[in-house]
Amino acid sequence: QVQLVESGGGLVQAGGSLRLSCVASGNIFVINAMGWYRQAPGKQRELVAAASDGASTNYADSVKGRFTISRDNAKNTVYLQMNSLKPEDTAVYYCNAKAITIFHRYVEVWGQGTLVTVSS
């Protein structure tokens, strides 16, 4: 199995910054992609940012220029640096990983979620 543990959420004022972290552990052979999704109350879960095992990244239009995703492959960790936060960024943020286990199984796993609240 593969597990994801997130940290770094909290309460911040509009214009502030937060950094989310997500560490993957378990029977990992390789992690193909890691990313962050978010779900606001009454809304569907949406992709925020994703990073492949190479250098490619992609972002939701709403966060481009404000959020930066990065990976430390040696630590099986993905980060989301969030700057210039807006009240509309308030949501539960979920880490996602697509990986191959040591048993040659493809798995897609989710973290438990971390709440980000941006006050106006």
Task: Furnish the topology, listing elements before pairings.
Layout: E1 2-7, E2 10-13, E3 18-26, E4 28-39, E5 46-52, E6 57-59, E7 67-72, E8 77-82, E9 91-101, E10 106-110, E11 114-119
Parallel strand pairs: 2-11
Antiparallel strand pairs: 1-3, 3-8, 4-5, 4-9, 5-6, 7-8, 9-10, 9-11
Describe this structure in words.
With 120 residues, the chain is mostly beta strands. Strands 2, 4, 5, 6, 9, 10 and 11 form a seven-stranded mixed beta sheet that branches. A four-stranded antiparallel beta sheet has the order 1-3-8-7, with no helix packed on it. A hairpin with a 6-residue loop joins β4 and β5. The radius of gyration is 14 Å and the shape is elongated. The N and C termini lie far apart (40 Å). The relative contact order is 0.33.
Give a nutshell description of this structure.
With 120 residues, this protein is mainly β. It is built from no helices and 11 strands. Strands 2, 4, 5, 6, 9, 10 and 11 form a 7-stranded mixed beta sheet that branches.
Relative helix content: under 10%
Overall mean confidence score, pLDDT:
96
End-to-end distance: 40 Å
- Low-pLDDT windows of residues: none
Shape: elongated
The quaternary structure here is single chain
Q: How much of the sequence is in beta strands?
A: over 45%
Q: Radius of gyration in whole Å, from Cα?
A: 14 Å
Q: Compute the number of helices.
A: 0
How many strand segments? Answer: 11
Order of helices and strands: EEEEEEEEEEE
Question: Could you name the key traits of this structure?
Answer:
mainly beta; 120 residues
